[in-house]
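Data card: per-record layout.
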Amino acid sequence: MSPRRIGVLLAAMLLPPTAVLAQSTKPIAAPGASTPQTAIAFGGIGEKAMPVTPATPLPVGGVREAFQLVSANTPSIPVKLYGGDYILSQLCGTYGTFKLEVLGADGLTWLPLVTKTASDSGSGTGVALGSFAMVRGSVNGTSGCYASLSRVPA
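The structure for this 154-residue chain is written out next.
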């Protein structure tokens, strides 16, 4: 061992313990109010990112979605879903056919998932859909038709 290294070790051993502890107990913090580069943050599209802290914990509630697929016998535009379990509720004044359709794997073909020719007798029809499924409601020969699709929170 070199004489210089021995001198450094001796000096460190002779320092009072408070000098050594003062260097190791200072908290590490980001400058100002900025979020450190490695922080976990959350926020909606177009919203300010909120860092995860004890005061602003990560939200863990289930995703809630509800879409009006048909209103006053007029179908809405197709919607992209989060995925999971959904309840389809529909009611028409007069019936022909109401269909809940899902976009096929080819991205062009609409496949019938549920077909109704009468009102729901209970609270609706359960439907399980994959992540980011694209769905739409279609009507044929109906009047006064309304249909909604609501996600069941996990």
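Known properties of this structure: The helical segments are 3-14, 17-24. Residues 11 and 51 are 43 Å apart (CA to CA).

See the next section for split statistics.
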